[in-house]
């Protein structure tokens, strides 16, 4: 799920520099043994060179960590600009934005394609606007499709079995932007308030995360986390150090293996973890990383695959290691990041990235799929 446009200036202000000091060597090591002779540029640098094995070359032009395998899941032709990806335990759904404007101003439509696990297209669904958030409600088995993350947000629920598409309208957005990703947990649904209008100091003082319910054709929102909320800093957490967040770019959502909700402050280069969201016991922590991050997932089984969407090649790829370490965090860096086109493991204590694959043009979505679902 790609970052919005209004906060481009904020990106340069909020990307922390420290982890980047470790980064150049790892990419050089990754690329040095690739038979295609690809070279790393200074802007395409990441971290932890000492633990990064030599890369393998392959026909897709993607450098992968030694022992990993890459294969094609699907390559689009009729539809373009794939972004979000989700599965229902049996099939895969990918949202194609078809060059629709991020604020819906061009009245174009996006296409949601349902695939089986072998990449065979089964069904298509058309939704208005620029599709960005896509999640499956585990209780109703309805697909939630959120569009126009910059402004004029729209959403629909889709019943994949019947093909029924039901639209819902949003109230006026207090933050001035749109809505991006949704996540279902503990009987609640959460949604990120994307592309916020920042005040004169460059701060987001509006809700960054809401809970959402649907009724009578309307989306009802309740603030859960403000853009300038207080949080514990992970790297100094032993001292209970508190920081004031500045969620300049609330983007994708996920859930860690401890059951916490995780929000990516993409342009702010932060991973924000919310324990017991929307309750009186809510706690928030912040992990700073050295690059913008997009979709982030946790390995929940030792055997499985990562499914990575690449908008530039209009394709989706499987990445498989010999074995996953359960609980490992995997992330992707967007094309406007200083560490662009990377799939990496994240150190949860330091925020340092260790690359596992490089060479994606515009990674926009990612899933972890255990072999039990494959």
Task: Characterise the protein shown here.
By secondary structure, the protein is mainly beta. It has one domain (8-14, 72-373): TolB, C-terminal domain (Neuraminidase). Helices cover 4% and strands 43% of the residues. The chain contains two helices and 28 strands. The chain has helices at residues 8-14, 24-32; strands at 55-56, 63-65, 69-75, 82-87, 92-96, 109-115, 121-128, 131-136, 143-147, 154-158, 165-169, 178-185, 188-194, 207-215, 218-226, 230-233, 242-244, 250-255, 261-265, 270-275, 283-288, 296-298, 304-310, 315-320, 329-332, 342-346, 353-358, 363-370. β23 (304-310) and β24 form a beta hairpin. Mean pLDDT is 87; it is low at 5-47 and 49-53.
SSE blueprint and pairings:
Blueprint: H1 8-14, H2 24-32, E1 55-56, E2 63-65, E3 69-75, E4 82-87, E5 92-96, E6 109-115, E7 121-128, E8 131-136, E9 143-147, E10 154-158, E11 165-169, E12 178-185, E13 188-194, E14 207-215, E15 218-226, E16 230-233, E17 242-244, E18 250-255, E19 261-265, E20 270-275, E21 283-288, E22 296-298, E23 304-310, E24 315-320, E25 329-332, E26 342-346, E27 353-358, E28 363-370
């Amino acid at each position: 799920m790609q970052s919005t446009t209004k906060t481009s200036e904020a990106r340069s202000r909020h990307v922390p520099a420290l982890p980047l000091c470790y980064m150049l060597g790892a990419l050089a090591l990754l690329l040095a043994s690739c038979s295609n002779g690809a070279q790393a540029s200074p802007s395409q640098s990441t971290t932890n060179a000492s633990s990064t094995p030599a890369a393998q070359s392959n026909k897709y032009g993607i450098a992968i960590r030694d022992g990993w395998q890459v294969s094609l899941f699907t390559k689009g032709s009729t539809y373009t600009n794939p972004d979000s990806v989700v599965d229902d335990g049996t099939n895969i759904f990918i949202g194609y934005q078809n060059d629709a404007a991020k604020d819906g101003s061009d009245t174009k439509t996006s296409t949601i394609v349902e695939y089986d696990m072998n990449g065979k297209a089964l069904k298509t669904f058309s939704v208005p606007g620029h599709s960005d958030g896509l999640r499956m409600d585990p209780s109703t088995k309805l697909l939630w499709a959120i569009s126009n993350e910059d402004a004029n947000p729209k959403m629909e629920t889709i019943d994949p079995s019947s093909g029924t598409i039901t639209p819902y309208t949003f109230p006026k957005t207090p933050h001035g932007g749109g809505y991006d990703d949704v996540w279902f947990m503990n009987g609640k649904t959460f949604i990120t308030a994307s592309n916020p209008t920042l005040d004169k100091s460059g701060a987001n003082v509006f809700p960054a995360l809401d809970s959402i319910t649907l009724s009578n054709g309307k989306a009802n929102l309740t603030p859960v986390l403000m853009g300038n909320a207080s949080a514990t800093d992970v790297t100094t957490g032993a001292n209970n150090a508190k920081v004031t967040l500045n969620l300049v770019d609330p983007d994708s959502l996920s859930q860690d293996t401890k059951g916490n909700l995780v929000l990516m402050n993409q342009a702010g280069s932060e991973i924000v973890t919310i324990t017991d969201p929307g309750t009186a016991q809510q706690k928030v922590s912040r992990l700073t990383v050295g690059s913008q991050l997009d979709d982030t997932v946790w390995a929940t089984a030792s055997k499985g695959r990562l499914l990575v969407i690449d908008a530039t090649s209009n394709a989706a790829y499987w990445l498989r290691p010999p074995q996953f370490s359960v609980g490992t965090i995997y992330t992707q860096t967007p094309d406007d990041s200083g560490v662009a086109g990377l799939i990496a493991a994240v150190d949860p204590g330091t925020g340092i990235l260790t690359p596992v694959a490089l060479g994606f043009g515009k990674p926009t979505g990612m899933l972890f799929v255990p072999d039990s679902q494959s």
